[in-house]
Amino acid sequence: MLEKGFVPQKPFPDFKWKWACLQCTEGLNDPVVLLGVLFRMRKLEGHGLKYSSQEFANELIELSNDVSDSVGVDLARRTGERNLIRNSGQYWRAVGLIPPGDRSGEIRLTEFGRRVADREISQTEFSAITVQTFKLPNAQIQSTSECLQWESHSLVLYPLRTLLSVIYELHKQGEGFLTTEELTKIIIPLSGAHASIDDYVNFIRWYRAGEISISDWPNCCEAANDFRIAREFLLFLSNYGYVNLIEGRTREDEQYYFNSLIEAEIAEILNTPITDASLQSVLEQIRTTDIVSEVERKRIQGYRTSRPNQARFRNDVLTACQRCVITNVTMPEVLEAAHIKPFKYKGEDTVANGFAMRTDIHILFDSGHLRISEDGVVELSSRARMDYGATIPPRIVIPDFINRDFIRWRWDNYNGI
Fold it and tell me: Is the dihedral of CA 182, 186, 189, 191 positive or negative?
């Protein structure tokens, strides 16, 4: 346990945390962008096409148009020779979605990336795997010399897991949030000193109470983009629902609060020992428990109850369509209104953007385990197929009042909450 007067030192001059991109664009961290680009890679993979091709440019332009009203990132300009993957491919490499070391420029995915793109691995499973396996040093985002510096100081860190553990411990002590300032000025400097979770928590609480000064602590965010890149670790946890972001006056003041709605599931993720950090091994570990299904169920419930117009939306949708679009069930007690284009991404509260669905079908739809195409084709994830494959029709009739562009948007860009 480190003493209150301890002052960390950088283990080497350029010690810092690097997220999955050297030139950060926070919008890339949003699941609709990170996975939306992946879905489009999958469409083009296997045809000998390159990221600099016009075909890939067209896909990025379409995605950029789709998210222009909800995510602050312009992909339309990141095409051609100076394309998105050339400049920011570390994002997809670092989380295991495209192959490491491949500089051919040809569109290729890893087997893990294909399974995520094919919706065999849900968005919640993807995020849980990333929390468990993302490690520094990381050869996909750091040079060989940087990795050797980390290794020479016996530094190995799982930053997402560490941050989630710190916020969880603060939550248990009644202070369940972390600011970007505390990440960059306290946690990152301490991580170079092999700090424990208790050390991180102690120094944050001492700092909040005014019991210590960090004015003589090292600056681990010296370069112009270092602060923004470090912040992306917290943005990942926020984008995938582990913490809730409360914006401040500045980015340093932002508070990332522990999501107590899924406390038991987060605790189980953090308490699961990782004996083999391979993506497949961690996926198998996760699937032997109910962690993912409970996270999906509770987050969906929390999202719905937080929607102020949900009751009116349900009434309008069920008035327009009085039966489940998948099962034809008509009992109002078990029918709900499902947004096609999610409200988070500027989906409207109108009947044109709503399906009437039986409760369990709605959960499958919102969690990405059931998908509906513009033509009414119904697809199930491998997990959902085991229980629902014999009861779900392969095709449905889309009601005339539904806006099919909302269906296309979801099919192309969304993989569940």
Answer: negative
> Which tokens in the block code for residue 232?
């992306």
Helices and strands (H and E) in the chain: how many = 19, 7
DSSP string, 15-38: -----S-SS--GGGGSHHHHHHHH
Looking from the CA of 78 toward its CB, the CA atoms found within 13 Å total 17
354, 337 contact by CB (below 8 A): yes
Supply the angle between the helices 159-172 and 263-271 in degrees, to the nearest 10.
Answer: 130
Q: How many Å apart are CA 204 and CA 206, to the nearest integer? A: 5
Residue 21 has what pLDDT? Answer: 58
The predicted-structure confidence for 320-378, as pLDDT tens digits, reads as follows: 999 999 999 999 999 999 999 998 899 999 999 999 999 999 999 999 999 999 999 99
What is the DSSP secondary structure assignment for residue 399, as one 8-state letter?
Answer: P
Using alpha carbons, select from 392, 343, 350 the residue that is nearest to residue 371: 392
Q: Which residues of the chain have pLDDT under 70?
A: 20-26, 102, 275-277, 303-308
Instruction: Provide the pairing of β-strand 370-372 with 378-380.
Output: antiparallel
Specify whether the CB–CB gap between 90 and 20 falls below 8 A: yes
Say if residue 137 is preceded by a cis peptide, omega within 30 of 0.
yes
What's the number of CA atoms in the CB half-sphere (13 Å) around residue 148? Answer: 3
